[in-house]
Amino acid sequence: MKYIRIASPDTEIKRGNNKITIEVNGSEVRDIKSFYEILVNNLEFPGYFGDNLDALYDMLIDLQWLKQDTIDIIISDYEDFLTDEVDEDKAEIMLLLEDVCREWKEGYSDDEDWEMKKVRVYVLCDEMTGKQISRMIADMTEEE
């Protein structure tokens, strides 16, 4: 895992005027539908968003409708995050977030009119959980 940032639970993430900060409290976001709702509401997804992983990926690597240039997604209480889903679904979401961060970091678009964004995902957790997340993403990457 190179792009999702692991930080201790007491880490303070800087706020800014040209930034959208989305706080995902894992104890309140136990299913994928709730996760979609938070992103749809905070990132103002267009009405054609399809409530599935492919559509989520497409939305998160576009974001051209937003005027802000930085989007931070902060996941706290990770142990409770998506607990109503099977482990594979949680792993797929984390891999998707890793891929989105990588795409934005590496600058995948050659379109000169494309407005680059900084999309960062922070998981606030202890070191052991951070290692588990890294392993889970590595395992999913190997399966692809």
| C-alpha Rg (nearest Å) | 15 Å
Q: What composes the largest sheet?
A: 4 strands, parallel
Instruction: Count up the helices.
Output: 4
| Coarse structural class | alpha/beta
In N-to-C order, the SSE pattern is EEHHEHEH
Low-confidence stretches: none
Number of strands: 4
Helix fraction? 25-40%
Strand-residue proportion: 15-25%
How far apart are the first and last residues' alpha carbons, in Å?
15 Å
Shape: globular
Strand order of the largest sheet: 1-4-3-2
> What oligomeric state do these chains adopt?
single chain
Mean pLDDT: 91
Structure report:
- This protein is α/β, with parallel strands linked by helices and 144 residues long.
- The protein is globular.
- It has four helices and four strands.
- The mean pLDDT is 91.
- Helix 3 links the parallel strand 3 (70-76) and strand 4.
Describe, in short, the structure shown.
This protein is an alpha/beta fold and 144 residues long. It has four helices and four strands.
